[in-house]
Known about the structure:
The protein is α/β, with parallel strands linked by helices. The protein is 46% helix and 14% strand. It has helices spanning 21-32, 64-71, 87-101, 117-130, 135-145, 167-171, 189-201, 220-231, 242-252, 255-268, 277-287, 294-310, and strands at residues 13-16, 37-41, 55-58, 76-80, 104-108, 152-156, 158-159, 174-175, 184-187, 208-212, 217-218, 236-237.
Amino acid sequence: MRAPSIHTTQRTVLVLGARGTVGSEVTRALLNAGARVRILTRSSNGLAHLPDTVERLLGDIRDRACLARAMDGVASAFYSSPHEEDEEQLARNVVEACETAGARLVFVGVHVDGPNRLVRALKRGTFGRMAPHYRPKFGIAERVRCSRAHPVLLMPSNFCQNDELFREQLLEGIFSQPLGHQGLNRVDVRDVGDAAARAMLDPSIPSGTHPVDGPATFSGPACAAVWSAALGREVRYTGDDEQSWTRPLRECLSGRKQEDFLKTYRMISRFYVPTDPRSVARTTELLGRPPRSYGEYVRDTLARWRSASAD
Ligand SMILES: NC(=O)c1ccc[n+]([C@@H]2O[C@H](COP(=O)([O-])OP(=O)(O)OC[C@H]3O[C@@H](n4cnc5c(N)ncnc54)[C@H](OP(=O)(O)O)[C@@H]3O)[C@@H](O)[C@H]2O)c1
């Protein structure tokens, strides 16, 4: 297994969306690795914890001149496609800016993988019929993959951190996310951040797609059991009752992000996503260690919630 620091670039690296779920973890991981970090955000709220060494630019990805300034001199940029109506245009702006600057683009989104364009197009057609709201996302990832930005596409599974949208229910003893009775692979976003930082800093990481998976598949009742053990009280799985999981999503999220989450959850409750040991092995190689377990995520999250409420 290669040590993550061998080929590290000394040039500045750029994080777009550093206040987001994935972008904040990428920023943390880059700083831990000693990188020179620049961020472009639309607001400085919630960034007070970052050290002064982080170069902060305020601006919008819709503004191409601003994006070009942010990209100036950077070795690589991180971008996670947000749940925005114009996400395709935003992605085009980012890809073009990376190509012009000669920067590597490390991207997180939803990608349909395959050995060539034809196979991927056929698979996009099939998956697009099953999940029409993902069609723009599939197109974006393909554009990134075919770009001249030496792209690395990270393909994470279901985020453990989605649980935090359901914090109030979890603390009341309810796990409502409709993950079904067979389940899906779940990955800790801290690992997505660590993997992205590695790809941004180490030019020897090959362009192309890289799965970022957690070590195991979890059904809804299995997730409830992990929370139950951590909280020391019963946690019931209520994901078969649509009212139970739609209410927190409607309260916590708005706009396109809320719509995407509602559609995605309606879909995933019907699917079984077994863990592919080859994907876990590739994740382990990219991280230089095995991915974190769901149990570790739950314990760390609970400790963080408890320490925040003790302050
Ligand atoms: N949830 C899952 O289980 C899962 C699993 C696999 C893949 N994914 C994919 O992950 C992606 C979402 O990532 P995320 O959860 O990190 O999203 P997120 O938390 O919503 O963050 C998106 C970031 O993009 C920034 N942004 C949006 N529009 C912008 C603009 N016009 N200019 C500048 N910045 C802009 C936002 O900035 P502000 O902070 O200023 O608002 C925010 O920081 C989606 O493509 C999703 O499909 C999710």
